[in-house]
Amino acid sequence: MTAKRKPVSRPLPVLFLVPHLEVGGAERQLAELVTRMDPARFRPIVVSQKGGGVFFEQIQRAGVEAHRFELPSRWGVHFAWRLARLCRSRGVRAMVLRGFSTGVVGRLVGRALGIRPILMAEHSTGRVDPDPKKRPLERLLAPLCDGVIAVARGQIPYLMQEKRHRPDRIRVVYNGIDLSDWRPEEPDGEILRELAIPATAPVAGILAMLRPEKDHDTFLRAARILGERLPDARFLVVGEGRERSRLEALARELEIGERVIFTGRRSDISRLLTVFDVTVLSSVTVETFPMSFLEAMAMARPLVGTRVGGVPEMIEEGGNGYVVPLRDPTALADALEKIIADREVARRMGRRSREIVAEKFTMDRMVRDTEDFIDSFFTG
Questions:
Q1: Architecture of domain 12-176+362-375
Q2: Tens of pLDDT along 51-84?
Q3: Cα distances (angstroms) measured from residue 265 to each of 158, 215, 268
Q4: Among 114, 141, 164, 249, which residue is least crowded by beta carbons within 10 Å?
């Protein structure tokens, strides 16, 4: 970390530069952050490179200054010029950047204008589709970054080895959630009827895009194993993606088609979670600090997840869930059975999930920790 700077006049203008503000976990976290920052300490200014989106509108409605550039090229000189002009006119003193092209252009413009600190907000633990051009450029520009905001300790090896960030510049700020928006309730009868789930059936569910890295195959194979032990169990697959037809075929091949319910994309996640006895993630990579788990915890649901990214940081082993090895259907089935074979155990572990959120992962804590990290560059 760079040397501490003298105190500055308040509120401090901080520019947040992102690729877009469409629906997504990182975008939601940014919207919550900039609309909750202490106005006596900070004046956030948001720039969306590719246009608006649902969170762009939320930010504007809250009275936070927000701009959308909508330029034809992510790399053109017009992008750098408009960014530099905005920074000068607003007297920007700090920058928080997320994304590849935004990170490249933002660092170069920020350094040219003498803006410090320049912080990178990193939300990944790997690349699903590696671009060979990105790695050398990110490594080259790593020294132009004064600090890194990570969302899990599990990211740190990736940020050091892949992107060459110095460990002393990395600060972990966990994603947060507002518990007042998520209230644990009894199973929603309408959802149970819609999905033809008996009220007495234990339910394990997975909320994730149907993509290869989420490894739904292991979840389905675990469902086959667990279904032989608990014939009444049901398994929900919530989400959409290019893997759906193949996964539906696999469920039929495993002869569990009548127990597995593919819901597609849903907007009523809080209602769906009321019928879960346990929430699962079987991902094999790029699972950093999943919002689906955070939402399940807020709804007092226990977790079973693979040892990837920041997932183990969300699970207190035996307290609110279990961590299992990658691609191990038997281990996953065993962990699920420990929870859903006894609903009182599931309820107890679910209560612990919500307690952990209140202790570690609230929205207020996320905002405060981010503010303090930015402030650390200006105060002794």
A1: 3-Layer(aba) Sandwich (3.40)
A2: 788 899 999 999 999 999 987 666 678 899 999 9
A3: 30, 17, 9
A4: 114
